[in-house]
Amino acid sequence: MKKIFSMFLLFFSYFSASTAKADEDIPRVIKLSPEKITQHNVDLPLNQFRSLEILAEKNVSSHQVPRPYIMPDTADLAELFGSDINANGIRDDYERMLLKSYQRSEYVAMGILAAERWDKLLRLLHSQEEIKTSFQALELFNDNIAINQCYYSLQKVDKSLISPVLNYFNNDQLLDAKYQAELLLLDIIGNNQANFTFHQKPCERFADFSKSVKKGKLAAL
User: Fold this and answer.
1) Distance (Å, rounded) from C-alpha 36 to C-alpha 146?
2) 3-state DSSP call for residue 117?
């Protein structure tokens, strides 16, 4: 049962990410007033103002894109999170990808909020200090399901949107760590696996995630 759910999450992550990856060689900047995605537009979980607040609080700016960094193949478990030269709590290669791939501040902010849940998942391999109860484990598992569901639903409207999940888990070591962490979550959840939740409005979870981010001053992007 554990393997089935874990393999489902991994498959869903791959599927929602799409087969195309963002072109990191083409520099882009976040537009304050980007064009509408379609004639109907996409109903995003964060508005532009809240997204800019999140980017300001996290010190994320297209004027200070972290320099390129490639995680060595020999990296051990302690180095799973990679380099964070600007010390804002976001892995540099992932932060760089968000800024270069997404023109909408809302998408960048969503990528940051999703990464916080993925960070939390990987930290399980070091310590279970944050996830001690089956309720906490179930909440994190359901959050990861909601993230995948949200990107999948948005991709149905915005055909150009690429989920950042495979840019976060961007090598075999990270993918294996994700799998092992999900198995550990399932062990903690135990008999509560019947309470897995497939949200009717999964993108609303991003709005909930954003409530935990402190409000900061807006910075010029």
Assistant:
1) 24
2) helix
pLDDT at 65: 65
Span 157-167, pLDDT tens digits: 888 899 999 99
Phi, psi of 30 (to 5 degrees): -75, 130
Spatial contact of 104 and 124, defined as CB atoms under 8 Å apart: no
Q: Is there a contact between 10 and 179 (Cβ–Cβ < 8 Å)?
A: yes
- The tens digit of pLDDT for each residue in 71-101 reads 555 444 446 667 888 888 899 899 999 998 9
Query: What predicted TM-score, i.e. pTM, was given to this entire model?
Result: 0.75
Whole-angstrom Cα Rg for the chain:
17
Structure tokens at 51: 């997204």
Cα–Cα dist 89/115, whole Å = 10
Helices (H), the chain: 2-17, 48-57, 92-101, 105-123, 134-155, 165-168, 172-189, 204-210
* Structure tokens that stand for 88 in this block: 């804002």
What's the rounded Cα separation, in Å, for the pair 24 and 79? 23
pLDDT tens figures, 99-139? 989 989 999 999 999 999 999 999 999 888 889 888 899 99
Burial class (CB in 10 A: 0-12, 13-18, 19+), 219: middle
DSSP state of 118: H
